[in-house]
Amino acid sequence: MLQLVDFVVRNRFFLVFVLLEVLSVWLIVRNNTYWGATYFNTSNYYVAKTLAFSNSVRDYTKLNEINADLANENAHLHAQVARLSQTNAAQSPAGYVPDSAFAARFTYTVAKVVDNETNKANNVITIDKGTAHGIKAGMGVISATGVVGKVRFCSEHYSVITSILHSNFMVSSKLVRSKEIGYAKWDGKDPNLIDMIDVSKYTKVYKGDSAVTSDQNSVFPPNIMVGRVETVAVNPNQTFYNITLRLATDFRNLSYVYVVQNHQLVEQENLKLRTIEPKK
């Protein structure tokens, strides 16, 4: 308290000066229309700026919550799109009516990426959902923009995904315009590019064409983006194109993914096993 009194006594002339200046400004604003309007316009401008900054800070702190809500909404929309694409498939012959259970066989679980590799020859991704959330090995994984990979193994609360940026991972893909089916396989170099192999050179391939997951796929729903044709080359000694795709998913900025469950996968796999003849 004594220090405060001492401060006021030592700076009394300056404090009186400041007080008189404030009083003078107040009197000018109060009794002069022009300066009054200028003051209020200026003060409103800075108050608005302050409120806008405050709202921006508050919105920024809620980004995680907003992103989670959007991811859940996207999962719901993915399920609807997959069901509608099977029910109203444009390439289906007249009179074909898909089974309703088949059309609705895919469901989605939202997960957050907690670890992600892009600079190795065999990259994996870790997510924050595991067996406690119904995740199982072999399930497909996609993002809001395209294919991500396949679940490799799980613990109770985490799962490791074999990324599409893995030398041993391939996904059956279809070129939208030419309808040709091949396989997307990473060459272990650029995390933005992937090769598409086994596409016959006797069909037309268009630069910029979209490559999506094909119908011949039990892990991923059909028509999920893989990438767009970046380059097309032909080797005279081969019967297939050398096609490079620019990946639809930006793996360096991957935050949320959707784990895809095919509820009829076990039935499909068990039926295929019956075609394998036992060794004699």
From TrEMBL:
Residues annotated as domain Rod shape-determining protein MreC beta-barrel core: 113-261
One biological process term in Gene Ontology: regulation of cell shape
InterPro entries listed in its UniProt record: Cell/Rod_1, Cell/Rod_MreC_2, MreC, MreC_beta-barrel_core
Family of the protein in this entry: Belongs to the MreC family.
Organism: Dyadobacter fermentans (strain ATCC 700827 / DSM 18053 / CIP 107007 / KCTC 52180 / NS114)
Keywords: Cell shape, Membrane, Transmembrane, Transmembrane helix
TM region(s), chain numbering: 12-29
PANTHER family: CELL SHAPE-DETERMINING PROTEIN MREC
A GO-annotated cellular component: plasma membrane
Name under which the protein is recorded: Cell shape-determining protein MreC
